[in-house]
Each structure stands twice: as C-alpha cells, then as structure tokens.
Write a structure and sequence with these properties.
The protein has 149 residues and is an alpha+beta fold. The protein contains five helices and eight strands, in the order βααββαββαββαβ. The protein has two domains: 1-59 and 133-149, Alpha-Beta Plaits (2-Layer Sandwich), CATH 3.30.70; 61-118, Alpha-Beta Plaits (2-Layer Sandwich), CATH 3.30.70.
Amino acid sequence: MKRVYVDPDVCMGCGLCEVYCLTQHSRSLDILKAYRQEKPRPVARIRVERHGNTAFGFQCRQCSEPLCVYACVSGATFLDDHGQVAFDESRCIGCWTCVLACPYGAIARDDARERVARCDLCGDPQGDGLPACVRNCPNEALSVREEAV
C-alpha cells in the first residue's frame, strides 16, 4: 500500500504541497484560475501543520485499520483490491462520520460541495507515480513509499 511520508527535518512549511494539491483537484488544473476564478474553490487534501520551527504536511495516513472506512455509511470510503483506502466522491452524502471517526483529523470537509475531501494520492497525472504534493515539494520533504499490506 502506498503512503505519503514527510521528513519534518527538511519541511520548511512553505505550503506548496497544499497549493499543488488544490490545483490538482481543480477543474482547470491552473493555479491562478483554481484560486481566483473557480467557484466553489477546490479543497486541498493535505494541510501543513506548523508548531514553532517544526512543520510537516499532513494527509490520509492509510491506516491498516481505517476507522473512516468502518464509519462510512454510504460506502464512499472503502478499501480497494490493494488494501488502499479509496474514495468515491459520487457516493459521499456529506454526513461527516468519516471526519469524526478519523483519529488523525486527516479528512477535510468540503462545505461548498457538501462532501469530504480526502487524499487520493492524485492518481498518476504525470506518469511518474507521484502525487502532486510530493512532485512539487521544493525541499523533497515528502516522499511516497510502497509497503506490504
């Protein structure tokens, strides 16, 4: 199963992972249009936590026992054939039970669309297997690792 990891020793808290995640999940795939013109504005699936001199990008932890999956009443959040936590936005009813169940607070509410916004590892838009947050981290603080289930 794939997971995004952060090295807090090199994360500088710039927030570019949030910017590129939001852009990757926009209709236009354009930074300026996504921020200034799209209504409702897309929601980033990663957020940067900052505390003093420490910063790190935070998103779905791909838990081995995903409480969000067990709590999802519509089946929108599920385990795929590879044991990865997956999400079908079209099935989300905006009940927020997955948000409440996640012990890490890693699932964002998209209030404008009345759905959740959760990390989907961005598919593979560039053909390199990297999510937008990892690909665009200027300090290479984010990485993707494959783990056995």
